[in-house]
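Consider the following input, taken from an annotated entry for BTB domain-containing protein (Stephania cephalantha).
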Amino acid sequence: MRCLSCREEYEYEEANAGTCKECYEEASETEEELKREIDDLKSKLKFLTTRSPVDPHNPNNSSSSLFTDVLLVASDEDDCGDGAPSVPAHKAVLVSRSPVFRAMLKNEMEESRSGTIRISDVSYEVLCSFVHYLYTAEVTLDEQMACELLALAEKYQVKHLKAYCEKFMKSKVDVENALITFAFASQHNAEHLLEASLLVVTDNMDKLTKQDVYKELIDKDPRLIVGIYEAYLAKKDNTASSCSLPQNPS
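Applying the prediction step yields:
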């Protein structure tokens, strides 16, 4: 029998069918080595992970605010009054995750002096999930949470979170939400989401031009409608060109 790995002939053994003994043992050693490397990486990750000061599943109870030195406050909570719920955090974590936070806290800005950062146009729950992600790179998403976190991630230049939300939203694009998703992606410079939603839009122009959101876009942002039609016409031209190509003789 011929080995699938080294292509050498060998005597058939049921235990390692398709692979000679030498290649089978080498593969087993490689597998064990990779397992040890994975375990080592998991151990390092656990050691380096900073415990989040907030539990996004229960925002009203801080899991650990020990040694936190800055507070983030959602601006739509009680008009940012003194009684508004705040999310504790560590400046060192914020500046390492976001260049915007780094600029705020490094320079003598109000946020640096007061130890309070007011986050506009975000709910307390979303802010908790945002801060938790900065510590753990983990978040539970639904479509609304993904939208709000993507906008927040773009504002504070947290690229990893933005990409994570964008990937989630791409998986949810369909005929019903393609137009509004396209408008959202355009507003927040989400290129991959923009391409995915535009593809669905141009494939279903006859249906989507009848939607109320399409009529609203004509009034609110005609630039987007122009972009849609440019993409649609370009797609039709490419399809027509492909169909008109001479066929290869059989």
